[in-house]
Amino acid sequence: MPPVKKVKLDLSKIKMAIRAGIPLSITTYTLPREMEAYIDSVLKAFLNELNQDKMSEYLTYCLNELLVNSKKANTKRIFFKQKNLDIFNEEQYSEGIKSFKSETLSNIRYYLDLQKKAGLYVKFVLQARNNKIKIEVRNNSELTVEEYKRMHDKLSRAQQYTSVDQAMTQVLDETEGAGLGLIIMILMLEKIGLTEENFQILCENGETITRIILPLDEKTQKNLSVVSREFVNLIDELPQFPDSVMRINRLLNNPDSKMSEIATLISSDISLTSDLLKLVNSATFALASPCRSISDAVKLVGIRGIKNMILSVSSMNVLNTLGEETKALWTHAYRVAFYTYNLARNFCSSNRTIVEDSYICGLLHDMGKLIFETTHPAYINRIKDICAQKGIQPDIFEKLVAGVNHGEIGALIAEKWNFPEVIVSVIRHHHEPDLAPENVKKLTEIVYLSDMLAHYQEKDIDFYQFDQEVLANFHITNEIQLQKISNSLEKAFDKESQ
């Protein structure tokens, strides 16, 4: 037998999917051996990144069982079609299944070629989100009633066995002999503490979906949270906002303040005035005529708008002192801010609060990354020492460096700087908008979509990796519509950046 060709593993895409909570998907039509090996390696790398590698052996077996069953289901459709039998007819199903195994195995290449021509696929989907790992195998052959009954019969019978040996003995004694792999799979899941509730079979939109839901290790999550907080507590020496900005903020937070007082105080800071007017007059805000004074700016964008702009400008000034290596992150941040503001104006024009908060939330969504990537080595070493003292594995810290939990770190820093709760929440949940508080969910979805669009334009992600519920909320139902919005935003941003 010839050696299996290796497909190169892109670890960076796996890390990004974990960091952003987006799905990874691999589609195959014939499931050759090299593809099986590649899918196994993706699963193992994914689990390793999440400190779940102890489960790797069991889950690899389960995954292979699901993949092979899905491929077999597709082969069955082709076989029945070639025999002019209706697979959904109970009598014809019983007739065809008698010779299905022997005839297809003796001529498997022929049937696999027909599967590919018919567009019958097997899709592997992997996602870590909301403290759970979702492992899915999908194929575009819906289960028949008979197949569904047989599968659930095997799942029910799996509960009767206490060991793999017992299952093999009893199942192999029967003339049918089918379903052993599925029974063993359930027993494998039980070995890692899962139950039948963690395994799902469903038909949806023309696909059969088999799904394993794996709760993330609580200890890993707790340790990530501990290290994140320790990191934020250590960075007391981060540059602070200038006194003038703090005075302006106090005035802005005072409901009795007059616009004229606010404008006068802002105007006394020449540098801040210049930066604010530059931002207000940028193409992002698309003013009908140039704004030439802070008084006009305050009238145009309001107290909340000015406050957010000051936080934006001040944050940029503070964070820009951290080093040249943040240039790429800032380029991404400016793009996301521009997209967020424009999407907010288009989709939430009647909600002034969302529009006013959109730019700063888009700008600072990755603040955790900005801080972490420029942290002085002395802080890094101190965090490592804390990990050792608390008995936390070193790779937990490495995951923070890779960007895992950067939303939480950014939110903690925003809290430390006394940012409004809206901004804190959006930073915290920008990769998981469904977890955002209801009052900021729409804005969080806009930032999520803007961030994903920026990555989509960089070819970092594909259309399928977008949250389909979020897309639906913006009336985006296919990639053509997404591409149209993407092109429009990209063109406008590039024009402004010239």
Short précis:
The protein is α+β, with helices and mostly antiparallel strands. Helices cover 63% and strands 7% of the residues.
Could you walk me through the main structural features you see in this protein, from its secondary elements to its overall organization?
63% of the residues lie in helices and 7% in strands. With 498 residues, the chain is an alpha+beta fold. It folds into 2 domains: 206 residues, Histidine kinase-like ATPase, C-terminal domain (Heat Shock Protein 90, 2-Layer Sandwich); 278 residues, Hypothetical protein af1432, CATH 1.10.3210. The protein has a 5-stranded antiparallel sheet. The longest helix is centred in the first third of the chain and has 27 residues. The chain starts with 10 loop residues before the first helix and ends with a helix. About 1% of the residues have low confidence.
Per-chain topology:
Layout (H helix, E strand, L loop, with lengths): L10 H10 L3 E5 L4 H17 L6 H27 L7 H16 L2 H11 L3 E8 L2 E8 L5 H14 L5 H9 L7 H12 L7 E6 L2 E9 L2 H17 L8 H11 L5 H9 L2 H11 L13 H26 L7 H21 L4 H12 L3 H7 L3 H13 L4 H8 L4 H11 L4 H9 L11 H17 L10 H6 L5 H19 L1
Antiparallel strand pairs: 1-2, 2-3, 3-5, 4-5
Regions with little confidence, pLDDT below 50 for 5+ residues: 172-178
Summarize the helix and strand pattern as letters.
Answer: HEHHHHEEHHHEEHHHHHHHHHHHHHHH
What is the CATH level 1 assignment of the largest domain?
Mainly Alpha
Number of helices: 23
Proportion in β-strands: 5-15%
Cα-to-Cα separation, first versus last residue: 58 Å
CATH topology grouping of the largest domain: Hypothetical protein af1432
**Strand order, largest beta sheet:** 1-2-3-5-4
Count of discrete domains: 2
Give the fraction of residues assigned to helices: 55-70%
Radius of gyration, CA atoms, in whole angstroms? 28 Å
In CATH, what is the homologous superfamily of the largest domain?
Answer: Hypothetical protein af1432
The CATH architecture of the largest domain comes to Orthogonal Bundle
> What is the approximate shape?
elongated
Number of strands: 5
Q: Mean pLDDT score, rounded?
A: 81
